[in-house]
Amino acid sequence: MNTEKDFSPLTPNIVRALNDKLYEKRKVAALEIEKLVREFVAQNNSAQIRHVIQTLANEFALSLHPHSRKGGLIGLAACSIALGKDSGLYLKELIDPVLTCFNDSDSRLRYYACEALYNIVKVARGAVLPHFNVLFDGLSKLAADPDPNVKSGSELLDRLLKDIVTESNKFDLVAFVPLLRERIYSNNQYARQFIISWIHVLESVPDINLLDYLPEFLDGLFQILGDSSKEIRRMCEVVLGEFLKEIKKNPSSVKFAEMANILVIHSNDLIQLTSMTWMREFIQLAGRVVLPYSSGILTAVLPCLSYDDRKKSTKEAASACNHSLMKLVTPEDDEDDEESQTKSSPPGDGTPSKKEGDLNGKSNLRISTGSLVYSVLCSSDRSAVTLDLDGIVQVLDRHLHDSSTGMMTRIAVLKWLYHLYIKTPRKMFKHTDSLFPMLLKTLSDESDEVILKDLEVLAEIASSPAGQTDMSGLCDNSDSKTVLHIPGGVRDGQPVTDLSPSTPSMNSYFYKFMINLLKRFSLERKLLEMRGAFIIRQLCLLLHAENIFHSMADILLKEEDLKFASTMVQTLNTILLTSAELFQLRNQLKDLHTQESCALFCCLYRSWCHNPVATVSLCFLTQNYRHAYDLIQKFGDLEVTVDFLMEVDKLVQLIESPIFTYLRLQLLDVEHNPYLIKALYGLLMLLPQSQAFQLLSHRLSFLVLSKQDKRLAQPHIDYSELLQHFDRVQSKHLEVRHKRAGRFEHPDRKL
């Protein structure tokens, strides 16, 4: 530095000492500057004071020479000490050059800058608050300084500044929040620690309502919560815990809408428990305000439901969120927007309601996270909220399609779908066509509990009045060749007379469901074998059993795959004869005293003809013993295979079961039941010498046949036509077997 230059009012001795490399000489110069400035203060000579500060700043603190910069820093501190309470008038000139030195490459100089600023702030106290942002910005950089002395000095300055903020009621929070929002995304651990400590301090000051600005930096807090440092995570948890307590105390002033989606975009394992806890509280406190963000919430919550015990707390919090969110959906959400507006507007008033006007004036913020985009409604109006049904269905459908989705998550998804069909059926049926294929596919799930929930959803779809649609074109989307017969139509060109008017009406999806269920059984024989009976029995509980059997029988009547039709009839027949769920239907068929029961019998009979033994068992169930005898006589014309004899064997076992107790008791009345006995003897003649043969032979050995069966035939049933139908169906089966035999033989399957 040119010492010959005029630095008045600084004397040459002061200038020389300020440029000296020894700290002690610079300190002596600082004392001289302090004395000089005090004189100017006493004279009220602000011009000279400002000239001294500018000289120290420009010629020394900002000099290229390191010793001069050190001298300038200590000189500026001396000026502040001399000014005392008047230092507030010159703070910008005092602070700016010191902050510039925070970026110096020399660690010793950065330390002296901290020391100088500490002295300046200590003297000015509350007067520095208008310059808080630049001070905070400088300190946030020094918090990550690699030099321990500089870091120690910055910590002293930081504590002093926190004390000043805590004592003052003039802190400008509005001006500070943008800087906080920017700095909170720092990845440096020391900087994060610095940020968290300041948020904690500001949150504890009664006069500073930081909660109002929480949406501005909540995302950054959750990112810090995922830090690898345990200490930083602990500090962040404390801060978030304090905010959550404040939210619970003052829910009316909380901007739930602006924070809802911030919580759901964080899926880091370290963050999830806290975000789920916050979301649970948000849903309970805000209620329907969070409904527009349901899709985002479910995206975050549903995967957590399949966590194991290692993440038990997160799973329980997510489950609580899921349950609380589901309860927010009400039948009012099924109303159209026009209906909602009509209800909210006074009658006869053409002007929009205040609520509607507020809604139209809302601004929307969109947050994009990966492939998902959520809308954030920036409004405090809690009543005018809309359920994001489309978004919810999209999320639920995506989880059903994802093969990696856990069992508990799949169950929760199906519970949601069922709940939505109950609460918002009209709007949900707009999505049914897209959901239906996946719901059918879910029937192949490995979990029985998942299948049960899936069947509940399908049953609700099939029985809901909201599902009534035009029956024409019902099978347009199906590539099945099965033609669905709708009750009330025609069959083979003739009016249908064997429909049961006692069955409750189902909507169009019921028949679509039955067609596609049978088609799925046809394509997945393992599903039919392993779960077919389970699925059908559960459907009989959820829907009307008569409807299930009536519709399936009608569909199977047109089935072109005769082998599948026979297998399916055998399955249905076993369910009909053995399942407790079918008790009422069995009683209805046992006594054919009404036209409805006769119509049901005829409908089942026509399809049961695909399986001769099943047809006979149906006749036994309905006490059509003479017709059963007539059918058994025709068995001599059929191809008797091992499978056929096994079915006869099973029928004999069934006759010995509680289901046919009434039949066995009727054997006591030989006079009135000769054809029952003849039919049983017919079965006996079909069986080889086996355990079943011995069982039936022993039971029949004490009976004496009468000449005549006095049981009256049912006037509503044309038995000769039924026999002709049986012959036609069996002829088709025989023709198919002959064609198949032309391709390959199965000698081991014949006797």
UniProtKB/TrEMBL annotation:
UniProt record similarity statement: Belongs to the VAC14 family.
Signal peptide: none
Domain Vacuolar protein 14 C-terminal Fig4-binding: 525-701
Gene source species: Cyprinus carpio
Role: Scaffold protein component of the PI(3,5)P2 regulatory complex which regulates both the synthesis and turnover of phosphatidylinositol 3,5-bisphosphate (PtdIns(3,5)P2). Pentamerizes into a star-shaped structure and nucleates the assembly of the complex. The pentamer binds a single copy each of PIKFYVE and FIG4 and coordinates both PIKfyve kinase activity and FIG4 phosphatase activity, being required to maintain normal levels of phosphatidylinositol 3-phosphate (PtdIns(3)P) and phosphatidylinositol 5-phosphate (PtdIns(5)P).
Protein name, entry field: Protein VAC14 homolog
Record keyword Aminoacyl-tRNA synthetase present: no
An example Gene Ontology CC term for this record: PAS complex
InterPro entries: ARM-like, ARM-type_fold, Vac14, VAC14_Fig4p-bd
GO biological process: phosphatidylinositol biosynthetic process
Residue ranges, annotated region (Disordered): 329-361
Alphabetically ordered keywords of this record: Endoplasmic reticulum, Endosome, Membrane, Microsome, Repeat
Pfam families referenced in this protein's UniProt entry, alphabetically: Vac14_Fab1_bd (PF12755), Vac14_Fig4_bd (PF11916)
Assembly information from the UniProt record: Forms pentamers. Component of the PI(3,5)P2 regulatory complex/PAS complex, at least composed of PIKFYVE, FIG4 and VAC14. VAC14 nucleates the assembly of the complex and serves as a scaffold by pentamerizing into a star-shaped structure, which can bind a single copy each of PIKFYVE and FIG4 and coordinates their activities. Interacts with NOS1.
Cellular location(s): Endosome membrane; Microsome membrane
Gene3D superfamilies in UniProt: Leucine-rich Repeat Variant
